[in-house]
Design goal:
Blueprint (H helix, E strand, L loop, with lengths): L20 H26 L6 H38 L8 H32 L3 H25 L6 H21 L8 H23 L6 H30 L3 H7 L1 H20 L2 H16 L10 H5 L2 H37 L1
């Protein structure tokens, strides 16, 4: 990859290092959820609320009304701070080759992420207070755009919350080693897109079993029977998606507890099939309950059927093969980015040493 001219970075870890956007958004959402949980726990402990849901809503609306009265200038205060952070970070006023510059950039990025987390409960309570109140809805229409700007600045600044070059290089080398190992481990994989394997076979299975159920019970074709086909297909796809996620978790788990945790969600859906099948056996017929159970059980237990190294077409359509394909493609991407990151950091280090 050719270097671009001037101060433009070659990769996301070039002269102006930053994190992937997905990581920054995950941090913002995660911190917001944490502060929402802390806020509602505080409301339960510190304020006179009862077990009645309507009483809790009344308390939340009262809090939201008080917050909304002050929310505008508070957002303005935070926006001013983040704009200042944004200017000194993006324009490079704190950039440099020294460790202090990296620490300052990282600190500003973490502060900006924390600000959105702090204000998330206030926004939610304001929305609750504005429901059914025209005047407060009008105020909220002015607050929400400002909050969106706050989130944008936070995500932009949070992307610069990276470690110093030595730590980045260490993490990149670990990622490169892990990716190389995964490329060997998941070589026996499906050649199809994992989403094709997860969606198409279960959908076909569910619709086929629904048609069989209609034939067995002599149900004429109608809009209701079409809905039955969609319900069977949707249920099969949902169970296949749960099984696919469990397979990925199981493959990556390094401990016995991790592997057992991967089986927890499929076990819950097995209980759902058992209860719903029992209800259908009583309400409709045993044959319908069996077909319903097959539509959910076959996708759920399909990971137990391993792929065949000799017959690739079998491995193409197994969830284990699809999970291996997912991890193989992810390992290819990780290896590429880790290599680019190491190369970029080495180049920056060499330039810094020459300038020094």
């Amino acid at each position: 990859m050719a270097k671009s001219q001037g101060s433009n970075r070659v990769t996301r870890y070039g002269e102006w290092p930053s994190r992937p956007l997905k990581e920054t958004i995950t941090d913002v959402l995660g911190l917001s959820m944490v502060f929402l949980l802390i806020t509602f726990m505080f409301i339960q402990v510190a304020l006179p609320v009862s077990s009645d849901f309507s009483d809790n809503v009344a308390v939340m609306r009262a809090l939201g009304r008080s917050i909304l009265e002050e929310f505008g200038w508070i957002l303005g205060f935070y926006l001013t701070i983040l704009l200042g952070f944004y200017v000194v970070t993006v324009t490079g006023q704190i950039r440099g080759t020294g460790e202090k510059a990296w620490q300052t950039s990282r600190t500003l990025g973490l502060y900006s992420t924390a600000i959105v987390g702090f204000t998330a409960p206030a926004l939610l309570l304001s929305i609750v207070a504005a429901i059914g109140d025209v005047e407060r809805v009008a105020k909220l229409m002015l607050v929400i755009p400002a909050y969106c700007v706050l989130v944008f600045l936070s995500i932009s600044l949070g992307s610069y919350a990276v470690n110093d070059p030595k730590v980045q290089e260490k993490l990149a080398k670990a990622k490169l080693k892990r990716a190389s190992r995964d490329l060997t481990r998941f070589r026996n994989r499906s050649t199809l897109n994992p989403l094709v394997v997860v969606f198409i076979p279960p959908a076909v299975l569910g619709m086929t079993l629904a048609v069989v159920a209609m034939l067995v019970h002599q149900v004429p074709f109608s809009w209701a029977s079409l809905w039955l086909c969609l319900i069977f297909a949707g249920m099969s796809v949902a169970h296949a998606w749960i099984a696919f996620g469990s397979v990925k978790t199981y493959m990556k788990a390094s401990s016995l507890m991790g592997k057992l945790a991967a089986l927890f969600l499929p076990a819950l859906f097995l209980l759902f099939l058992a209860f719903s099948g029992t209800a259908f056996a009583e309400l409709i017929s045993v044959r319908f309950a069996i077909l319903w159970g097959m539509a959910g059980l076959i996708p759920l237990v399909s990971p137990l059927f391993p792929g065949n190294k000799k017959w690739l077409w079998i491995n193409n359509w197994t969830l284990a093969g699809a999970a291996s394909a997912y991890f193989y493609r992810k390992a290819e991407q990780d290896k590429l980015w880790a290599s680019l990151q190491i190369e970029s950091i080495d180049n920056d280090t060499s330039i810094s040493q020459c300038n020094g």
